[in-house]
Amino acid sequence: MMEYRLVRSRRKTIAITFDENARLVVKAPYWLDDERIRGFVEAKGEWIKATQTRLLAVRQKNFQGRPKLETGDRLPYLGGEKVLTVVRDARARVKVVKAGDRIIMWVPYEADYELRRMHLERWYRSEAAYIFDKRAAKYARIIGVTYHQIHIKDQKSRWGSCSGKGNLNFNWRLVMAPGEVLDYVVIHELCHLVHMNHSPEFWELVERSCPSYAKQKRWLKANGETLYII
Asked: 41 — phi, psi (to 5°)?
């Protein structure tokens, strides 16, 4: 019998989907009985197996070249690299610190890849929050603008954004990029507090604080995907 996770809701029809690990998820209405759900899944058996095989192959390809998050891995940080040291011991909580040219992570003995990745991302987000706070404050004074709040996100299609309420959103992955690239994104979003568009006047304002902005844009276009290794 094919294994799956059942999610019931007020939906009117039954549907099949897959989670991030290609495991089967069945979405069904509250009123649909278990036997009919199992029959539906069995009828789709060949398609489900073929789809899972394809998804697992894609997932494996995406993981190729990614660090295993073990001792000795070199992780990007502000355009450079820091060597990861993983210390396994009898503990319940994970701790991550930066020490010179190293990132040291203390984990429980049984900590798997996903647990290490999750806590490493949490550490990167913390670093990003601190760095963006300092850089935004610096360039806001230079440009002569004020902002409301800074939010650290994992935006899939953009590196930063500026809301009409004066909030700045930044992708935490930029903390892996060179500092000049990070500064460009900060300046770019701060300038949107003056011009909520990409008019010639906007780019003139960006250039005043970031004369090399075109170079930083090119770096992001050419290397942005490398910031998604974790």
From this structure: -65, -45
